[in-house]
Predict the structure.
Amino acid sequence: MPCLTVRDLPPRTLSSLKTRAKSNHRSLNGEILFIFDWIVDHGMKTPPPVAGMSDPVVTRQKSEMESLIGSWRDKRTTGEIADDIYAARTLGREVTL
């Protein structure tokens, strides 16, 4: 099978391709082949988004999370917060298998 070499790929492009590949549960090579096949089959239309990223619920959740950035103030250290979370956990209900 033929091989293709791409030179001088910008780091941002490579990073985006790796993110898409991971989100779509494909290897980097598999993601690139998917994009090439998409362009061959559909022309220059934009390939489908990364899995789940077009979901309106995900978009809303992302927006809400971004609105919280910088709004949380706590004098405890990260370790103290983690300790408090672990201390608040319960064993849960008893399960018989």
